[in-house]
Amino acid sequence: MTHHVAHASIVYWRRSIWNGTRCVPVLMTLDQGWLRARDRAGAEVFAVPAGQVAGRLTRLGTLLLTVGGRRYALVGRGASVSPDPSPQQRRDLVDFWAHRSAPTGDGPGFLDQVFNGAAAFNTRSWHTALAAGGAGVR
């Protein structure tokens, strides 16, 4: 049984392991049983029922998701040369949380916050939300 889970944040899709400019921001939302991701231009990267998502969280904090047979490597923050989230992505994130209660629980650890911009916390919170929303994550 899954509970209604709502979660959203901007994560970075590592489209290339080596080229930091190809590590791009996506607004990822989980609501009403659907996981959606939109790129900087507002184009849909994917939109699927959460139960059709599989994945795992690596030791280094990369969330590896398989959606529709395609693998996505998602990290909590981009490289120094990665593009910033678009103003529309930022507005859409604010709008998402304007109508929902913010998640509760632990926040990022001190070292994660100071040295990593809470990137590990961001991907861990996605792992937790996806598991609660019925995705096949381990």
Characterise this structure:
The protein is α+β, with helices and mostly antiparallel strands. Helices cover 24% and strands 33% of the residues. The protein has an eight-stranded mixed β-sheet with strand order 4-3-2-1-7-6-5-8, sandwiched between helices. The longest helix is centred in the C-terminal third of the chain and has 14 residues, at 119-132. The radius of gyration is 14 Å and the shape is globular. The two termini are 17 Å apart.
Task: Set out the fold topology.
Elements: E1 7-14, E2 23-31, E3 34-38, E4 44-49, E5 53-57, E6 63-67, E7 70-75, H1 87-98, H2 110-116, H3 119-132, E8 136-137
Parallel strand pairs: 5-8
Antiparallel strand pairs: 1-2, 1-7, 2-3, 3-4, 5-6, 6-7
Summarize this structure as a short list of keywords or feature phrases.
24% helix; eight-stranded mixed β-sheet; 8 strands; 138 residues
Counting DSSP E segments of at least 2 residues, the number of strands comes to 8
The general outline is globular
Strand residues, percent: 25-35%
Structural class of the helices, strands and pairings? Answer: alpha+beta
